[in-house]
Specification:
This protein is α/β, with parallel strands linked by helices. The protein folds into 2 domains: 154 residues, Nucleotidyltransferase, domain 5 (2-Layer Sandwich); 175 residues, 2-Layer Sandwich (Nucleotidyltransferase, domain 5), CATH 3.30.420. It is 42% helix and 18% strand. It has 11 helices and 10 strands. It has a 5-stranded mixed sheet with strand order 3-2-1-4-5, sandwiched between helices. A 5-stranded mixed sheet has the order 8-7-6-9-10, with helices on both faces. A hairpin with a 4-residue loop joins strand 6 and strand 7. Helix 9 runs parallel beside helix 10. Bound molecules: 5'-O-[(R)-(carboxyoxy)(hydroxy)phosphoryl]adenosine (KG4) and zinc ion. The site of zinc ion (ZN) has 5 residues, from helix 4.
């Protein structure tokens, strides 16, 4: 089965072609980071315009690299949300046009759930299925969500952030420290030369029963600490601050994962996805905690941590397999900006 995925929810335009939901024939990504960097964050209006410029050439390149024609496709999968409305509209309008013109089913895909399937790309069917049921974390610039995934399309949200997302907090603290945008990878680089024990750090949402994340307190703590320093802050101190801050940002997630694991003893593994999952220290900390407990912790290939369209096509493939093409012929649906949190349990 051949599916093309289209992603335009934030600051990456992406198009990918997948065979049978796992084999990536082409995955093209155009990042807008350089356009937003001078503003220290994503500017929605700029993002939408950049998607408009990028989408057709990316689509052409993905088709040509995969060696297929539009007529060969079984379906088109596109990010429906959550994301920036103007940005989402570019991908969805493009995909709807393609679907109408070529008489193809159009699968609306949830971006956050898709990150989890992005982490399973490259695994064989049997290995990917052997991880289920699992705990899955999506740790990105917009989300810090933990799910119990019982089957490929059954995601039960068991924790999310009460305020900032983990990646958002890394980016904001990076900005306060004068590091380039986005802060996450820069904090990782500086932390590699720092001592995490050199700076005391508060622990957030410690109460064991509270299944939620919180990052605004940690961000405020860092903002106050940075404001107290004489400027410019010595290089080594910035390194130490990055190491201590990053460790607590990740420790909070690992503590909650450890609680969730005991609450859901049926899980066979842990999947960590989203841009922050690219962080090597985070990977090491998770492995160090869960390997001795004999729980496999699975992280995506680096290519599928940040936003990409292969993950959109992968989830679309599961939806098509389960519901059939007839379920995706109706195009009377719209984008959605926010993640619906009604299933959240405290
Ligand atoms: O998944 P993603 O590309 O986009 C969203 O859906 O938000 O995640 C972007 C986030 C940013 O906050 C960025 O700073 C963070 O992922 N990030 C990292 C690393 N690479 C990207 N955070 C920590 N360490 C990294 N190596
Ligand atoms: Zn994302």
């Amino acid at each position: 089965m051949l599916i093309i995925g289209i992603e335009s929810s934030c600051d990456e335009t992406a198009v990918a072609v997948l065979r049978d939901g796992r084999q990536v024939l082409s995955s093209k990504i155009s990042s807008q980071i350089a356009r937003h960097a001078p503003f220290g964050g994503v500017v929605p209006e700029i993002a939408a315009r950049e998607h408009l410029n990028a989408i057709q050439p990316l689509f052409d390149a993905a088709l040509s690299e995969s060696g297929i024609k539009i007529g060969d496709l079984d379906a088109i999968a596109v990010t429906q949300g959550p994301g920036l409305v103007g940005a989402l509209l570019v991908g969805v309008s493009f995909a709807k046009g393609l679907a109408v013109a070529n008489n193809k089913p159009l699968i609306p895909v949830d971006h956050v759930h898709a990150h989890i399937h992005g982490a399973l790309l490259g695994l064989s069917d049997s290995v990917a299925e052997s991880i289920l049921p699992c705990l899955a974390l999506v740790v990105s610039g917009g989300h810090t969500n933990m799910y119990l995934v019982e089957s490929p399309l059954k995601f039960k949200l068991i924790a999310h952030t009460a305020d900032d997302a983990c990646g958002e907090c890394l980016d904001k603290v990076g900005k306060l420290l004068g590091l380039p945008y986005p802060g996450g990878p820069w904090i990782e680089k500086r932390a590699a030369h720092g001592d995490p024990d050199a700076i005391p750090m508060p622990r957030m949402v410690e109460r064991k029963s509270r299944m939620e994340f919180s990052y605004s307190g940690l961000k405020t703590h860092m903002a106050q600490m940075i404001a107290r320093q004489t400027q410019p802050i010595p290089e080594q101190m910035v390194n130490d601050m990055c190491a201590a801050f990053q460790r607590e940002a990740f420790n909070q997630i690992i503590r909650k994962l450890d609680i969730a694991r005991t609450q859901h003893p049926q899980i066979r593994g842990i999947v960590v996805a989203g841009g922050v999952a690219a962080n090597k220290k985070f990977r090491e900390m998770a492995q160090a905690t869960f390997a001795p407990r004999k729980i496999e912790c699975h992280f995506p290939d680096l290519a599928y941590c940040s936003d990409n369209a292969a993950m959109i096509a992968a989830l679309g493939w599961h939806m098509l397999k389960e519901r059939g093409a007839g379920a995706f012929l109706d195009l009377a649906w719209d984008v959605y900006a926010r993640y619906p949190f009604e299933t959240h349990a405290t």
